[in-house]
Every structure is written in structure tokens, then in C-alpha cells.
Amino acid sequence: MKTDHLEFITFCVGSLEESLGKSASQVYNALRSSGVLNGYIIPCYDTLHTFSKEYLVEELTEVLREKGALA
Predict the structure, then answer these.
(1) C-alpha span between 43 and 26 (Å, rounded)
(2) pTM confidence score
């Protein structure tokens, strides 16, 4: 995995952690187990990393809810 991908994943986890009030490990596990990490964030990195923090949090929260990874 590329360094820029790792940095972006860390940014996404931290942003979601802050927004959802969950721990970093809970957020990471939700992203990984739902397939959002490897099926969406990494493949769409080139586009996603151009969006604002607010947009990313809204988008990823919605995707996680659609996947049933958030209550």
C-alpha cells in the first residue's frame, strides 16, 4: 500500500472518529469489515482525496450505514 493511501486512511479514520464519537479502532474495524476500506476508499482514493473533510465524513458515514456497519 502506498504511503499517501495510508495517510488518507488515517485522515478518514480520525475524521470519522471525531464525528461519530467512536474510537479509532472501532471506526477502522467498521471500514474494514464492511468492505468500505478495500472496496471504496482505496480504489477511489484519486477522487476522494480531493473532497473536503465535511464531505468525506458525510459520504463515508452514509456508505457505512448502507452497509449496516453503523447503528
Answers:
(1) 22
(2) 0.93
Instruction: Report the distance separating Cα 42 and Cα 1, nearest Å.
Output: 9
Span 9-56, pLDDT tens digits: 999 999 999 999 999 999 999 999 999 999 999 999 999 999 999 999
CA-CA distance, 45 to 67, in Å (whole number)? 19
Q: Quick check: 9 and 48 in contact, CB under 8 A?
A: no
Q: Report d(CA 23, CA 6) in Å as an integer.
A: 18
Asked if 56 and 13 count as a contact pair (C-beta separation under 8 A), the reply is no
Do the Cβ atoms of 17 and 23 come closer than 8 Å? yes
3-class DSSP assignment, residue 7: helix
Q: What cell does 59 get?
A: 459520504
Alpha helix (H) ranges present in the chain? 3-20, 24-34, 36, 45-48, 53-66
